[in-house]
Amino acid sequence: MPTVSFKTLGCRLNQAETARMKAGFARAGYRLAGKDEPADVYVIHTCTVTAAARSESARLARTARRRRPEARVVLAGCAVEVEPDALRAETGADVVAGQADKFRLPELLGAGCAATANPRQAPLFDTTRAWLKAQDGCDFRCAYCIVPAARGPSRSRPVAEIVTEAAQLAARGHRELVVTGANLGCYADGDRGLIDLLARLERIAGLDRLRISSIEISTVERAVVAYMENSRKLCRFLHLPLQTGSDRLLAAMGRRYTRAEYRDLVRFAADRIPDAGIGTDLVTGLPGEDETAFRDTIRLVEELPFSNLHVFPYSPRPGTSAADLPDRPPREVARERAAELTALGRRKRAAFARRFQGRCVEVLIEKVDADGAGAGWTREYLPARVAGEGRAPGQVVEGVVRAVQEIRLCVEPAQVSTSNIEH
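Predicted structure:
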């Protein structure tokens, strides 16, 4: 039985698509290789959002080739869609497959047309949580972003297809699903939008928690907040990309909001759902980012109740309009600014975690320590450790936070609901 190994870089959408690719390989008669087990096929599901991600994708392909020269090495996904010839030349990969071809890899490797992934077959996840792809592509064309070139225009899966897949995943034992897309707020199936989809998913038996990936400002963010406020299953965490706190840079980058509009939205969310976790993306070193612009970002982040910051230095991507813009800060300055924002993010995350001292939280167990205690995540997207023995992945545990260690909640369990996850 041939074996296949996967390495996935980048976003949750990539994770969801890797699970679909795994299902296609399983249907074609492949076995998923264990950790550190040599494989017959190595699939690197690439990312190209940053130069670092693109370079890492190529490095992993070269490493796989050195590790087992007789294996087939495959590069798939976003980086391949943007520059297939360059990556093939750099890595010597046997197959490079863009977005359209990556779901028919067994066929491209010679397994026959029957090996093509069945869209009605549930993706295969080896994690407690599962990712549910609802939408792909983006029409916004922000100046710094390569996603429209890598994933094409916005398009959505039908509600019925998504619900069927979600029900299959819930029946398999996945009690939390993360709904994801390249620009999820633009989801549309006829006259039904993201809120309609969430309402339908919430009715699935056996599904305890729903979570959503990033929501772009200027889409359905306020409707999501209003829905979240009264939802039984939608986790209370919002990821609202900011990128920069400078109005001048927001306009130059083609973002569809001002700092005041962003501030108003976060305050709206915090007023409606005071305990919600709120995360954001921030980029340092954008073209034209002087010290004044960076300090505008720092002040806005300090002002707002963020619980999680995803910070990275800007890397120019060929094919985007920002790649040719002048006045880009030196790389070391961008890194220093990223480090300052990251440190600020750690302080804000720790302060958010301390708010839950002595309070009841719900934790989905994802891993078990050597002593039998469970580790997982709360609905607010805080890491937690659940004391006691007998924990197992897939348990949903309610308990009281007895201590906070930096950002991790130490929970004493009060009630346990169990489920076996089938991998």
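Summary: Residues 331-354 form the longest helix (24 residues).
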